[in-house]
Amino acid sequence: MLAFAMFPTVIQAPMAAFNDHRMVIAVCEAGGLGSLPCTARTPEEIEAEVAAVRAGTDRPFVMNFFCHRTASPDEAVLAAWKTKLLPYYRELGVDPNAPPPPRRRVDFDVSSCELVEKLRPAFVSFHFGLPDEELVLRVKATGAKVISSATTLAEARWLESGGCDAIIAQGSEAGGHRGMFLPESAVATQVGTIALVAQVVDAVRVPVIAAGGIGDARGVRAVLALGAAAAQVGTAFLLCPEALTPPAHREALRSARAETTALTNVFTGRPARSIVNRLVRELGPMALDAPEFPDASLATQPLRATGNADFMPLWSGQAPGLAREVSAREVTIALSAPPRS
To answer: Which of 32, 93, 326, 334 is most solvent-facing, going by the fewest CB within 10 Å?
Structure first.
């Protein structure tokens, strides 16, 4: 088993599109483990971000990728989804015939692996399972420790057998995309963080990282008591000045509406926890006719681009009230604080 000392107590969740080198540096310098989301960035952008991280800290950090097996869009399903969104396009003055934005969410492939081999981070984490075995072996050959998310016991066991050096037990409370990847995994059967962490710790031999609904030091201590090696935290960082959270999203997190979140696929085609807004209420939460991930976002991205909070994904875990408008450094230190005597 890897020594628990390999992981700081607090790991900052990658949060694709919501953080860059500034967040990673602040967390690492405060004694946590910062994570750089790479899936939505070009290779050139990734190299620039990694260079910026290393210019700001000499501490280890995580490079995070999706491995969702990108396929060609089903044009008929996508067209039907756009037709369903047509009233919203008209309401917001969006041209329904405008060319879709370029697809930026790419799965981990040979070129991604070559980038890891060039940049050689200390940790590489994956969402939605693992890439092909050959690519996993190549990543491990660089010396990087491989981490991935499990939402069920079966997924945790599968990840361990696939070569993971540590497993993130992602409870249903977590914000953003569920890491579900096995065919039998279903939204209706997802379990909470406490139940999942305790069972995964007992089921695997590698360190377990707890994620989902952890927003302060009490939550961190709770999952450590269950045997977790560390806690991965995302929503608590969304109001930090280093976060790239859009203004409308920040306002939603501050409001009473943040108390109501749901797992929804209407924005991207995959289940993800968001604050409930108009699009979630009127089309979902789970829409059977939504295109597969990430194709649904080809249709919803123009609505999101308007900046209207009713039509954009407002990713959040179930404890948004614990997020504070302070620096990422302060959040990291507070999460690691011992109990008051």
So the answer is: 93
What single letter denotes the amino acid at residue 259? E
Q: Which domains does the chain have, with CATH numbers?
A: 4-70+105-238+319-335 (3.20.20.70), 73-103+259-315 (no CATH)
Note the pLDDT tens digit of each residue in 40-65. Answer: 899 999 999 999 999 999 999 999 99
SS3 sequence of 100-125: CCCCCCCCCCHHHHHHHHHHCCCEEE
- β-strands 62-66, 35-37 pairing: parallel
Q: Which of 194, 66, 209 is nearest to 130 (CA)?
A: 66
- In degrees and rounded to multiples of 5, residue 42 shows phi and psi of -75, 160
Round the average pLDDT of the chain to a whole number and report it. Answer: 93
Q: What integer pLDDT is reported at residue 279 of this predicted model? A: 97
For 52, half-sphere exposure in the C-beta direction (CA atoms, 13 angstrom radius) is 15
Sign of the CA dihedral running 130, 132, 134, 138: negative
Q: 311 — alpha (psi -120 to 50), left (phi > 0) or beta? A: alpha
Q: Which structure tokens are listed for 328?
A: 């990422």
**183-220: pLDDT as tens digits:** 988 999 999 999 999 999 999 999 999 999 999 999 99
**Among candidates 318, 240, 220, which has minimal Cα distance to 8?**
220
181, two tokens: 């990847």
Kindly indicate the confidence band of residue 100, based on its pLDDT and cuts at 50, 70 and 90: low
Give the whole-angstrom CA distance, residue 127 versus residue 88. Answer: 31
Q: Are 24 and 324 in contact (CB under 8 A)?
A: no
Q: Find out whether 53 and 20 touch, Cβ atoms under 8 Å.
A: no
The whole-number pLDDT of residue 119 equals 98
From CA 227, how far away is CA 208, in angstroms rounded? 8
The confidence score (pLDDT) of residue 70 equals 66
Please tell me what DSSP assigns to residue 273: E
Q: Are 122 and 60 in contact (CB under 8 A)?
A: yes
